Amino acid sequence: MKTEGIDGIERFTSPGKGRGLRATKHFKVGDLLFSCPAYAYVLTVSERAAHCEFCFTRKEGLSKCGKCKKAFYCNVDCQKGDWCMHKLECSAMCAYGENWSPSETVRLTARIIAKQKMQPERSASEKLLLVREFEAHLNELDNERSEMNQADIAALHHFYSKHLEFPDHAGLTVLFAQVNCNGFTIEDEELSHLGSAVFPDVALMNHSCCPNVIVTYKGIVAEVRAVQEINPGEEVFTSYIDLLYPTEDRNERLRDSYFFTCDCKECTTKSKDKAKMKLRDLSEPPKPEEVRDMLRYARNIIEDFRRAKHCKTPSELLEMCELSLDKMGAIFEDTNVYMLHMMYQAMGVCLYMEDWDGAMSYGEKIIKPYSMHYPAHSLNVASMYLKLGRLYLGLEKKSMGIKALKKAIVIMEVTHGKDHHYIAEIKREIQQQK
């Protein structure tokens, strides 16, 4: 396929940032700038049986693969469409059984290799950027990242050698680094993880903590919509990271994952940092060193909790959240983002444990400060309204539930487009209450 381009968008060299996208026409808030089908993608293992492996449709009554009994499909057409990728895993899953355990990154990379062999010419996902043009940042990888890449290469050979011809070791090293730096997480309307993919044209956008577009998904297609007015000649910016956190934390994440420091307006002015780091109004204000110590504790407990998710029970995780909130709450206000982070984790544990009242209580504390800290038209705010709305309905708080769901819809009509099937589903939930 020869280069087609995208109407209203062009690739250009962004000063100080390298490649980027800029608008060649005006876009208003909610406008679709462009859509991009996934070049390669994989459904996460935990969502099997709930989503079609080929098109990511969520529905009941999916049909399973007759051989491996692991992959599920809408119908025969979806199963046939997916066979060129599923065959990479089907017999291996049968052979290895419970020992079949490639990471999602390994599974995605295997599919990229297969796609490149099947379709060496430019794909519909690469109108402006080819997969082989992805940045790899090999020279900036630390020893831990390099070792992880080598472990992934070993896993790729172990699980996929019967069905794939691999590039040489140097080529695989570059490819895994490219995938780690340019891969996307596909999420549902509540921001639950559905799978991983590469969307080359979407990957061309640079980052800003004041983004003017947002990326959402319709099945295996990424859609890029304006969340600010965009004029001809202006660069198109998305956000690579969660924008809840203060400037120092955001840039640490950007340096760690993407090897740059952001110089957007929010990062230079730090205008939201004071509100995000709000302290309690105490009769005797804490000393600066006490605040520094608590900040260090907060960052450590976030990392400790992330690790604990893999080994502790839900009850232990909830206790960890509650203890940290008690400790931080001695100095930090409830609207402080570190408090909100642990409240959000606690809410997730409560949902898992089916403690609906507990989840609702945390959600109610989170939603107002979320609306203050996040930019307008935030997926994080929409998903919190959605979770709260569904909790309210489940707890027979009908009017509160409908009100919360309607607030989610207002945001999602901008971020997802008014015709998105998620919005139709939420509207049906509201209709069922009448």
From TrEMBL:
Coiled coil: none annotated. One of its GO terms (cellular component) is nucleus. It holds the Pfam family zf-MYND. It catalyses: L-lysyl-[protein] + S-adenosyl-L-methionine = N(6)-methyl-L-lysyl-[protein] + S-adenosyl-L-homocysteine + H(+); L-lysyl(4)-[histone H3] + 3 S-adenosyl-L-methionine = N(6),N(6),N(6)-trimethyl-L-lysyl(4)-[histone H3] + 3 S-adenosyl-L-homocysteine + 3 H(+). Residues 7-241 form the SET domain. Its EC number is 2.1.1.354. It comes from the Eukaryota. Keywords: Chromatin regulator, Cytoplasm, Metal-binding, Methyltransferase, Nucleus, S-adenosyl-L-methionine, Transcription, Transcription regulation, Transferase, Zinc, Zinc-finger. The keyword Magnesium does not apply. GO terms for molecular function: histone H3K4 trimethyltransferase activity; zinc ion binding. PROSITE patterns: SET, ZF_MYND_2. The keyword Nucleus applies. Its main location: cytoplasm. SUPFAM superfamilies: SET domain. Gene3D superfamilies: 1.10.220.160, 1.25.40.970, 6.10.140.2220, SET domain, Tetratricopeptide repeat domain. InterPro entries: H3K4_H4K5_MeTrfase (IPR050869), SET_dom (IPR001214), SET_dom_sf (IPR046341), SMYD2_SET (IPR044419), TPR-like_helical_dom_sf (IPR011990), Znf_MYND (IPR002893). PANTHER family: HISTONE-LYSINE N-METHYLTRANSFERASE SMYD (PTHR12197), N-LYSINE METHYLTRANSFERASE SMYD2 (PTHR12197:SF193). Protein-lysine N-methyltransferase that methylates both histones and non-histone proteins, including p53/TP53 and RB1. Specifically trimethylates histone H3 'Lys-4' (H3K4me3) in vivo. The activity requires interaction with HSP90alpha. Shows even higher methyltransferase activity on p53/TP53. Monomethylates 'Lys-370' of p53/TP53, leading to decreased DNA-binding activity and subsequent transcriptional regulation activity of p53/TP53. Monomethylates RB1 at 'Lys-860'. This is [histone H3]-lysine(4) N-trimethyltransferase. It comes from Megalops atlanticus. The lineage of its organism: Eukaryota, Metazoa, Chordata, Craniata, Vertebrata.
